[in-house]
Amino acid sequence: MLLLIAALSVGLFAVAQGAHTGVSLDTLRLSADKLSGDGPVDVPFIAPGGDAVLTGRVSHIRDGDTLEIGGVPVRFTDLDCPELGTSAGETAKQHLVRAARGRALSCRLTGEMSYDRHLGACTRDDGRRIRDAMRSKGICS
After folding, report:
1. Are 101 and 58 in contact (CB under 8 A)?
2. Reported pTM
3. Measuring CA to CA, which residue among 120, 98, 105 is closest to residue 56?
4. Fold annotation for 2-135
5. Is the Cβ–Cβ distance between 64 and 100 less than 8 Å?
6. Is Signal one of the keywords (predicted)?
7. CB 16 within 8 A of CB 26
């Protein structure tokens, strides 16, 4: 939170280009080594607009079809996995952990929300779609 306040106070923020309606997200890269000595940090910035692309490293995996980038939750629109609390749901989450943890992703957001999650489709830094990586094992549809 302190980093975000510091960034906004000096005017270091970015808005996704081509944004039209809904919510657009872009990633703000701060040089945290100057502020705390811990190295660069990705801080998501939310601004008006739609058809946005959220890019950054995966910070948390919730289940087989929802993850977070810089704390921003993204629910995949092109993937349906079993729910947590079932053995198939746990398997799906572990497969997503192997497919995405620590990787840089680019997620095209629809501008719509489902509960607290932005809806979108994500591609890994190697060009492979998360949908394809998850469906290849037959766990999700």
Report:
1. yes
2. 0.67
3. 105
4. OB fold (Dihydrolipoamide Acetyltransferase, E2P) (2.40.50)
5. no
6. yes
7. yes
Cα dihedral 73, 58, 61, 48 in deg (nearest 10): 0
Separation of alpha carbons 47 and 28, rounded Å? 12
Distances (CA, A) of 29 to 13, 56, 134: 9, 10, 29
CA distance 69 to 82: 21
Q: In the structure encoding, which two tokens stand for residue 64, read together?
A: 């087989």
97's CB contacts (< 8 A; 6+ apart) are: 61
HSE toward the beta carbon, residue 127, CA cutoff 13 A: 0
Tokens encoding 55: 């890019």
List the one residue out of 21, 2, 25 whose CA is nearest residue 13: 25
Q: What is the CB neighbour count within 10 angstroms for residue 35? A: 13
- 8 A C-beta contact, residue 44 and residue 54: yes
Among 109, 116, 125, residue whose Cα is nearest residue 58: 125
15-68 pLDDT, tens digit each: 333 333 233 344 444 333 333 445 455 555 544 456 789 999 999 999 999 999
